[in-house]
Task: inverse folding
C-alpha cells in the first residue's frame, strides 16, 4: 500500500462519514446521545479540507496529521479514540512511503492497542474495539497464511461486518450506552459501525 492509496483511504472514509452522518447519529440516538455522526462529520469535514495540503508527506506524517485534526475537532468519546488510533498507527509506520502486509499489520495493531489503552476497554464491552479487534486478528491470520494485501484486508472486512452486527447482542459496559444497562442490548453500536466503515474504505482503497 503506497502513500496515494493511504490518501485515497482517508478521502473515502471522510466521504463515507458524511454520507452516513444521519445513520450513525440514529444508532447513537438509540443507546447514547444522538451525536456520533455529528461528532465524526465535524472532524472528517476538517480532514477533507486538510488532505490536499499533506499529499507530499510520508505515510507516518499523514496519519499523524490526521490524528491531530480528529483529536482537535471531533469531541465526544470517539474523538480521542480515533485520534489515538491514528496517532499510534502513525508511529508504527514513521517515514514510510510503502507498506507491505507485515507493515500494515503492525500499523493496525498499534492503532488497536492505542484504542484499548485509551478507552480502557475490553472485548465484549460493545464499542469500536469489538470490530477493530476481530478485524485485526483476521488480517493477521491471513498474513500468516501468506495472503496478499487485498485478500487479507478482504478477510478482515468480512470479520468486521459480522462483528459489527454482533455488537447488537452485547450489553454496553463502556461509554454512555452503559448507562442503559440491559436496555442497550438489541442495538448495534455506533462506534463499532463507524469503525467498520473505516475498514471498508481501507479495503476499497487497495
Ligand atoms: P459520546 O459517547 O461522547 O457521545 P460518540 O457518540 O461520538 O461519543 O461515540 C460513541 C462511541 O464511542 C460508542 O458507540 C463506542 O463505540 C465508542 N466508545 C465509547 N466509550 C468507549 C471506550 N471507553 N472505549 C472504546 N470505545 C468507546
Ligand atoms: Mg454520542
Result:
Amino acid at each position: 500500500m503506497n502513500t496515494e492509496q493511504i490518501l485515497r483511504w482517508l478521502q473515502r472514509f471522510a466521504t463515507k462519514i458524511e454520507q452516513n452522518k444521519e445513520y450513525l447519529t440514529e444508532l447513537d440516538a438509540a443507546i447514547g446521545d444522538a451525536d456520533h455522526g455529528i461528532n465524526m462529520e465535524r472532524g472528517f469535514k476538517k480532514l477533507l479540507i486538510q488532505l490536499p495540503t499533506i499529499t507530499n508527506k510520508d505515510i507516518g506524517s499523514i496519519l499523524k496529521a490526521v490524528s491531530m485534526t480528529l483529536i482537535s475537532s471531533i469531541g465526544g468519546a470517539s474523538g480521542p479514540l480515533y485520534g489515538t488510533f491514528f496517532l499510534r498507527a502513525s508511529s508504527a509506520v514513521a517515514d514510510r512511503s510503502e507498506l507491505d502486509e507485515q507493515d500494515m499489520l503492525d500499523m493496525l495493531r498499534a492503532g488497536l492497542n492505542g484504542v484499548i489503552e485509551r478507552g480502557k476497554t475490553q472485548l465484549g464491552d460493545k464499542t469500536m474495539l469489538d470490530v477493530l479487534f476481530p478485524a485485526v486478528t483476521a488480517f493477521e491470520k491471513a498474513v500468516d497464511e501468506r495472503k496478499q494485501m487485498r485478500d487479507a484486508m478482504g478477510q478482515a472486512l468480512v470479520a468486521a461486518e459480522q462483528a459489527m452486527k454482533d455488537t447488537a447482542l452485547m450489553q454496553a459496559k463502556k461509554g454512555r450506552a452503559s448507562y442503559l444497562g440491559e436496555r442497550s442490548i438489541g442495538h448495534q453500536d455506533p462506534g463499532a459501525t463507524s469503525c467498520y466503515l473505516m475498514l471498508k474504505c481501507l479495503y476499497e482503497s487497495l
